[in-house]
Amino acid sequence: MNITDVRVRKITKEGKMKAVVSVTIDDEFVVHDIKVIEGEKGLFIAMPSRKSTDGEYRDIAHPINTATRDNLQKLVLEAYEKADDTPAEE
Protein backbone atom coordinates (compact mmCIF):
# COMPACT_ATOMS: atom_id res chain seq x y z
CA MET A 1 0.00 0.00 0.00
CA ASN A 2 1.37 3.37 -1.02
CA ILE A 3 -0.03 6.66 0.21
CA THR A 4 0.08 8.72 -2.98
CA ASP A 5 -1.57 11.94 -1.78
CA VAL A 6 -2.38 13.62 1.53
CA ARG A 7 -4.63 16.71 1.58
CA VAL A 8 -4.84 18.73 4.78
CA ARG A 9 -7.52 21.27 5.76
CA LYS A 10 -6.49 23.03 8.95
CA ILE A 11 -9.27 24.12 11.33
CA THR A 12 -9.62 27.67 12.72
CA LYS A 13 -11.91 26.91 15.65
CA GLU A 14 -10.37 26.59 19.08
CA GLY A 15 -10.38 23.04 20.32
CA LYS A 16 -8.58 19.75 20.07
CA MET A 17 -9.30 19.05 16.39
CA LYS A 18 -6.57 20.73 14.34
CA ALA A 19 -7.25 19.47 10.80
CA VAL A 20 -9.29 17.18 8.58
CA VAL A 21 -7.30 15.09 6.12
CA SER A 22 -8.01 13.05 2.99
CA VAL A 23 -5.57 10.29 2.04
CA THR A 24 -5.28 8.69 -1.40
CA ILE A 25 -3.98 5.12 -1.57
CA ASP A 26 -2.25 3.84 -4.73
CA ASP A 27 -3.86 6.65 -6.78
CA GLU A 28 -7.04 4.53 -6.65
CA PHE A 29 -8.78 4.79 -3.27
CA VAL A 30 -9.52 7.80 -1.02
CA VAL A 31 -10.29 7.95 2.70
CA HIS A 32 -11.83 11.27 3.78
CA ASP A 33 -12.37 12.77 7.24
CA ILE A 34 -9.26 11.55 9.03
CA LYS A 35 -8.90 13.99 11.91
CA VAL A 36 -5.70 15.43 13.39
CA ILE A 37 -6.32 15.77 17.14
CA GLU A 38 -4.20 17.42 19.83
CA GLY A 39 -4.07 15.10 22.83
CA GLU A 40 -2.22 15.16 26.13
CA LYS A 41 0.80 13.43 24.54
CA GLY A 42 0.79 15.45 21.30
CA LEU A 43 -0.85 15.13 17.90
CA PHE A 44 -2.48 11.91 16.72
CA ILE A 45 -4.94 10.85 14.02
CA ALA A 46 -8.51 9.63 14.45
CA MET A 47 -10.03 7.59 11.65
CA PRO A 48 -13.44 8.48 10.20
CA SER A 49 -16.21 7.11 12.41
CA ARG A 50 -19.97 6.99 12.78
CA LYS A 51 -22.14 6.85 15.88
CA SER A 52 -23.99 3.54 16.10
CA THR A 53 -27.46 2.97 17.52
CA ASP A 54 -25.97 2.02 20.90
CA GLY A 55 -24.21 5.40 21.14
CA GLU A 56 -20.72 4.04 20.51
CA TYR A 57 -18.51 5.47 17.77
CA ARG A 58 -17.18 2.93 15.28
CA ASP A 59 -14.46 3.49 12.69
CA ILE A 60 -15.73 3.40 9.12
CA ALA A 61 -12.26 2.71 7.71
CA HIS A 62 -9.11 1.89 9.64
CA PRO A 63 -5.71 0.19 9.38
CA ILE A 64 -5.69 -3.51 10.23
CA ASN A 65 -2.37 -3.55 12.10
CA THR A 66 -0.19 -1.28 14.24
CA ALA A 67 2.60 -0.91 11.67
CA THR A 68 0.17 0.37 9.04
CA ARG A 69 -1.48 2.74 11.54
CA ASP A 70 1.92 4.08 12.62
CA ASN A 71 2.98 4.64 9.00
CA LEU A 72 -0.30 6.37 8.13
CA GLN A 73 -0.08 8.58 11.22
CA LYS A 74 3.53 9.51 10.43
CA LEU A 75 2.67 10.52 6.85
CA VAL A 76 -0.45 12.48 7.87
CA LEU A 77 1.32 14.37 10.67
CA GLU A 78 4.26 15.20 8.37
CA ALA A 79 1.80 16.62 5.82
CA TYR A 80 0.03 18.54 8.59
CA GLU A 81 3.30 20.15 9.71
CA LYS A 82 4.13 21.15 6.11
CA ALA A 83 0.62 22.43 5.30
CA ASP A 84 -0.09 26.10 4.82
CA ASP A 85 -0.78 27.73 8.17
CA THR A 86 -3.85 29.48 6.80
CA PRO A 87 -6.64 27.34 8.30
CA ALA A 88 -9.91 26.61 6.54
CA GLU A 89 -13.13 27.72 8.23
CA GLU A 90 -15.12 24.88 9.78
UniProtKB/TrEMBL annotation:
Keywords: Cell cycle, Cell division, Septation. It comes from the Bacteria. It holds the Pfam family SpoVG. The keyword Cell division applies. InterPro entries: SpoVG (IPR007170), SpoVG_sf (IPR036751). GO terms for biological process: division septum assembly; sporulation resulting in formation of a cellular spore. The keyword Cell cycle applies. HAMAP family: SpoVG. Could be involved in septation. Belongs to the SpoVG family. This is Putative septation protein SpoVG. It comes from Lachnospira pectinoschiza.
